[in-house]
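**User:**
Everyone, produce one record:

**Assistant:**
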Amino acid sequence: MIIKIVTISLMAVFYICYFAKLISQKKQGIKTDQLGKGKEGFVKFIEVALKIITYLLPVIQIISIVFYSGTVHIVLQFRSVYKELHADHETGAADNK
């Protein structure tokens, strides 16, 4: 649980700084939101898709943090089984069984 709190806190700090920078640049007259503007065809489609994904990313990150259930342990278990099988193959131990 502590890891979830730390990761959400770090993410909040990052996005607070990110949006503060955007607001600061907007006040200075700097336009930072250029994706999809003045474009046509496939280029516009790609840039608009990128823009949508950019805005959805924080939501996806929060969902992944909140619903994280430790699946990395499964990946590590498969990796250790693979290493064990690979080690047996190299030493010939699997042939003697």
